[in-house]
Amino acid sequence: MPTIYADLHLHTVLSACAEVEMIAPLIVRRARELGLNLLAVTDHNAAANCAGVIAAAEGTGLVVIPGMEMTTAEELHLLCLFETVEQALTWQGIVFDHLPDAPNNENLFGGQYVVDGEGDYIRTEGRLLAASTDLSLDASVRRVTELGGLAVPAHIDRASFSLFASLGFVPPGLPVPALEIFRRTDPAALVAAHPEVAPYPLVRDSDAHQLSEMRVSLAFEANAPSFAALRSSLAQRSHRLM
Ligand SMILES: [Zn+2]
Ligand SMILES: [Zn+2]
User: Does residue 33 sit in helix, strand or coil?
Assistant: First the structure.
């Protein structure tokens, strides 16, 4: 079976903190140079740029997973990965209902741009995306799962916006398919220090905000790159961290 090379966490120009080069054609070109087969697009509390990256990847062999990095009421980041753009946009609607309706301050935080598959400007997202929703971690995980998605707590051991920073621990029995650890963390050392993570498959992603940060982050064997293949490799813990 072929090896699938993946990265599940990447920001585009819809995230105010991402570089202006993070547009669909350049992301897809860099992903192909790196040999990536599967790439998730995960902007902060927004999914409007997934369709553009999917369009840019069409016919290249790169499969793009529509997703989001949402901020829960506990101020922790949760990767929400979906099989279809429709699911991601449904989730987007729910998240917007639970975000403060405040304007983005472009001068302070940077712009939030929706772009198409060519990287051409469509519109500016005017509402503040770099905010916390009032959805709890439990409620978010439940609702993403009900929509058919995968809810993966992001960079759990990072110093901010993480499970360990916000709660100090992994809630016992948290029904998630994986935990994402910070990209520079040694998984064996983390499991030794925090045995409660041992029951979970661990992933490690680029969390790229610029092209040079993109990388192959995990690998697994599958007939073809897909959301379903990712889900089953996590369930079987048959993936490897790269
Ligand atoms: Zn994050
Ligand atoms: Zn991120």
Answer: helix
